[in-house]
Design brief:
Jelly Rolls, 4 helices, five-stranded antiparallel sheet, alpha+beta, 139 residues, elongated, 29% helix
Length: 139
């Protein structure tokens, strides 16, 4: 079994920025020279998430609206009393979306559906520099 690790660096622009990483992940899989296995994509930290979605403008608006209903921006969270950083909703959203995703790999490609892309969602309030760890495992 082979293991290949590489990092992706992302600059986010705003609260709830959604970044399509599919091409970067596909390139890393090809670079790994692993034909069949899995790819794990992980965001260190507690205010980001990684998932799959159809990366199109309407759905990007829909996910932002859905997350606003789940963990609203304008309310006071107990977390704010600890650090006074006003990002309690960022942590809650990350717990729902999760900071990692594993996708099967076949013939040096992620096994995604036709309209399925791998995305990073930044839930934190300020623009940030994010590091995403990509680990390809297989033969």
């Amino acid at each position: 079994m082979k293991i290949f690790t590489e990092k992706i660096h992302i600059s986010t622009k705003e609260d709830l920025d959604i970044i399509d990483m599919t091409e970067d992940i596909t390139d890393i899989i090809k670079k790994s020279n692993i034909k069949d296995g899995i790819v794990n994509i992980f965001s260190p930290g507690s205010t980001g998430g990684i998932t799959t979605m159809e990366f199109e403008p309407g759905l990007k608006k829909d996910i932002k609206a859905a997350l606003e209903r789940i963990a609203p921006s304008g309310i006071d969270y107990e977390h704010h009393k600890t650090w006074n950083d006003r990002n309690g909703k960022s942590h809650i959203r990350s717990m729902f979306i999760k900071p990692e995703l594993t996708v099967p790999v076949e013939n040096r490609k992620p096994m995604l559906g036709t309209w399925q892309q791998i995305v990073f969602l930044d839930f934190d309030v300020p623009a940030r520099q994010r590091e995403i760890i990509v680990k390809v495992i297989g033969e």
